[in-house]
Amino acid sequence: QVQLVESGGGLVQRGGSLRLSCAGSGRTFSSYDMGWFRQAPGKEREFVARVSWSVGSTNYADSVKGRFTISRDNANNTVYLQMNSLKPEDTAVYYCAASARRYYSGGYYSPHEYDYWGQGTQVTVSS
Questions:
Q1: How many whole angstroms separate alpha carbon 105 and alpha carbon 126?
Q2: What is the pLDDT of residues 95-111, one digit of tens each?
Q3: How far apart are CA 82 and CA 18, in angstroms?
Q4: Could you give the angle at the alpha carbon of 125 between the alpha carbons of 7 and 50, nearest 5°?
Q5: Separation between Cα atoms, residue 58 and residue 34, nearest integer Å
Q6: Terminal Cα distance for the chain, rounded
């Protein structure tokens, strides 16, 4: 089991940057795929980015590709989301999540494939 705590959210102007962190507990943190998701008011939770447990391969939603970068530091049980060129439409609560699956029947972008979630951190981008 792993517990996740996000930090780093805040208010930023259009075009600005933020770096989110997700600190995980547990000795097996490195064995989990880690994902970032976000949820805006009145909308469903959506996939943002994922980094695999093994070789650290990454995947991104089209809406953030080229602007966001996910990375992990297994020695410190932390996953990061560097967000650049932020837009008002990036405003949401951002959640990190961990998955122990080795096969995704619903796709790595589905929130249902993730077993553990943090409490979320608010990101607000003003225009």
A1: 37
A2: 999 999 888 888 899 99
A3: 6
A4: 50
A5: 10
A6: 40
Look up residue 110 and give its two tokens: 């589905």
pLDDT tens digits, 107-125: 899 999 999 999 999 999 9
**pLDDT per residue as tens digits for the range 6-52:** 999 999 999 999 999 999 998 788 899 999 999 999 999 999 999 99
Report the C-alpha gap between 39 and 21 in whole angstroms.
17
d(CA 7, CA 65) in angstroms, rounded, equals: 22
Give the residue from 27, 25, 82 showing the smallest Cα distance to 51.
Answer: 82
3-state secondary structure 57-125: CEEECCCCCCCEEEEEEHHHCEEEEEECCCCHHHCEEEEEEEECCCCCCCCCCCHHHCCEECCCEEEEE
Specify the residue for token string 């966001």.
Answer: 68
Provide CB contacts within 8 A for 76, sequence distance 6+.
none
